[in-house]
Design a protein that fits this description.
Number of strands: 7
Order of helices and strands: HHHHHHEHHEEEEHEHEHHH
Shape: elongated
Largest sheet: 5 strands, mixed
Helix content: 40-55%
CATH topology of the largest domain: Nucleotidyltransferase, domain 5
Strand order of the largest sheet: 5-4-1-6-7
Distance between the termini: 43 Å
CATH architecture of the largest domain: 2-Layer Sandwich
Structural class: alpha/beta
CATH superfamily of the largest domain: Ribonuclease H-like superfamily/Ribonuclease H
CATH class of the largest domain: Alpha Beta
Length: 330
Amino acid sequence: MSHANAALTPKARAKLGRLVVEDGWPIARAAEYFHVSWPTAKRWARRYAEMGLEGMGDRSSRPHRSPTRTPQHVVRRIVHLRWKQRLSPIAISARTDTPASTVHAVLVRCRLNRLSHVDIRTGEPIRRYEHDTPGALIHVDVKKLGNIPDGGGWRFTGRAQGERNRAATPGKARNKHGGPVMGTAFVHTVIDDHSRVAYAEIHPDETALTATGVLARATFWFATRGVKVERVLSDNGSAYKSKLWAATCADLGIAVKKTRPYRPQTNGKVERFHRTMAAEWAFARHYNREADRRNALPAFLHRYNHHRPHSAIGKVPPITRLTNLSGQYI
């Protein structure tokens, strides 16, 4: 491939070829004029005579034949062992009597060198997708978190102190053994497929009434940022299979999509957001009570949307993918 400082770009090669072939310039004179060697000038003049302008581009340096290339049946065997049994290059090397370096080269060529690229259940390469515009698809789901007792939970205080904090927390119901029931916080999350911009609310349940309310408010929140929601993808939870959910989506002009049963990978973007949310908000530090954690959610969402680089979209904050949005860099 010609570089920026090359003496002969494809355009200059064509000019050299015309001067030699059509205007009758001697090759030595053309070489001197273009500041290249005599063999170089002769090569491009010959190609111009044989192929015209189409021959002025760079040719592939790949050889016409590779006698030492790994046989195709061995490649198929390596790929099969990687897909179906998720073996390492060394293990595959032992099975196929092929050097581990060759196995690794084959896996790189077939884009199977990382097991994270291979679905653990099916053994097939993971298929990734992304919709072209914001709002073309949003993902919804619910993350369940145990409420934090006053004084902190066991993750930071230890099991013994955590149990004492649970027992001392006032206003909690009791189970049949007399122990306090802290309850569950249901974090309803909404993720835009294209931009990864996130919206979340905390509620005491995951009923259809709550889920539809979150969807309506999230749709309005996205609309104020110039995003029209077209489709919503959810799992097969009872709230998302309800008639109320279908009617609400119809009223909002949103098409309903469901994931395949027992295949959460389809909704993987919101599942990955839950992991980030748990690491950077829910369990990021010691909260002295549940209210402190809930009060910290808006700050986390702002940081995630406006400031945190997202590796899946080019290491830029999600909000940068919403064009013409005032204040998006605040």
